[in-house]
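Need the bound structure for 1-O-alpha-D-glucopyranosyl-D-fructose, inputs here:
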Amino acid sequence: MSLTWFKKGTIYQIYPRSFNDSNGDGIGDIRGIIDKLDYIASLHVDIIWLSPIFNSPNDDNGYDISNYYSIMPEFGSMQDFDELLEQTHKRGMKLILDLVANHCSDEHMWFEEAKKSKDNSYRDYFHWSKPAKNGGPPNNWKSFFGGSAWELCEITGEYYLHLFTKKQPDLNWENHSVREEIYDAMRFWLDKGIDGFRMDVIPLISKRPGYPDAPDVGFRKIIEDVYANGPNLHAYLKEMNEKVITNYDAFSLAEGVGINEKNVGLYVNKDRKELDMLYHFDILEFTIVNGKFEEITSFDLIQMKRIFKKWRDAVGNQGWIANAMGNHDFARMVSRFGNVEKYYQESAKMLITMLCTQNGTLNIYQGDEIGMTNIVLETIDEVRDVQSLNFYEENKKTKRYSEELALQLINNEGRDNARTPIQWNDEINGGFSIQTPWIKTNPNYKTINVKKQDDDPNSILNFYRTLLKTRKNHDVFVYGEFEELEFDNPKVYVYKKRLGSDIILVMLNFNTINEAIKLDDNVDTLEILINNYPDIEIKNRTTCILKPYQGVIFKKYIIE
Ligand code: TEU
Ligand code: CA
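Answer from helper R.:
Posting the output first, comments after.
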């Protein structure tokens, strides 16, 4: 297995709009990030991933780009960006940008031209289709954010494809000029010295010819079989790698939407020279059966172990993945997977202990390092996310759920949960801004904030720091060969990892009562590396009694 910096690195994702506001307009910005670089470095992370910072009408908060070469004025200037890059590198960290290349904004010049007439020179930058016989959309494809994936262009009488909002028209990658435009934009940022890209919905760029109807199966399956993994996808990824990425000391982190354990190798096996790594959706969408605001299953630890194992086996020594339990598209990880009511600190610390010892690059999301939780939005007026708003509007028509339940579902699963301002201290708006922020601050900022946790050696924040630092000094966390113990135990997750003569033993209790684990190692050979409780109880030198949500990493000494 090749050991590369980005494999061992920890990625810290920043959602700039919600990170830190430097000029008091209620919107996070680049200078705000620069002001916090020392804080970010103090976490022992290696790579900063910035969600989109380019010009955008913000229908989907920057995931609708209207100019790939510019900085959104709300976020600052190109000079600010250059300084951010320089200051990030100065602290020994890398910076990657979000490449949103499946679609752009309908306010991008390309689309403003393309919609003017059927013979406009930009027409083929997008996907157009004649109406169906009844005048409706050409096929049954649904947008990820509700409604048809086709919108009628009144001027030309044809429909254009948008897998996301109607202000996010899909780019036509079959068109050579589109690909070259994207590669040029990538080179522009790489020439500035950035270290790579996170690639938004990259598995969707190749569309199926003739736009065949989707079968009547769940949305997840439709994504896999109809929207993602299109016929020319791998040719495009190879081309992008060859023409752009390989010419720089840069790496790619793909959003693996629609990718499963069967085809992952085609994307990330190193001899294929396509992508360096991807994050899949099996953990991120854990308990979400077919998409947001639909059916939910209960948490099942064995199922989670199976998923981790499935991906480990699928990727093997040939490929690489990143592991995440949250990002800007999901509710907060501690609210979803932890026990906020009774074992808040313990569960937040235990979850990251689990993630940090899985094979793969660790990918954490801003605010999770202080255990930020979901927000309660009291009325629909407080909701900001287009996905949630579209769902609410659609539900008003279908009346599938009551309005109360719809809001409840938004509160449980909506993306705004992850987008509330970072809670820096207990001052107004959690120290994020002196102005009312663009999105509600979680009122728990008085008790959950960076300042408070900085001063507390036992805080979640300081636990993250210790853990990430320990990971840096122990290759076995990242590359170790995995051996499952207690696989069928639904309450505890126990495993060993081994790299050469280094062995760690990880024990995680997902239960709200004590759990006993019999050791097959001599206790005298075990040293505690990480523990989210002050101590650990060992009975008769052979059995560990794990407290609720206790997580421990032992290092094992081999006694010759
Ligand atoms: O997300 C793509 C994607 O698959 C998500 O929309 C996901 O399905 C959804 O959030 C889960 O409910 C990427 C970005 O991460 C997201 O923020 C963008 O809105 C989207 O692409 C469009 O660019
Ligand atoms: Ca600002």
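Comments: The longest helix spans residues 176-192. The CA atoms of residues 335 and 373 lie 6 Å apart.
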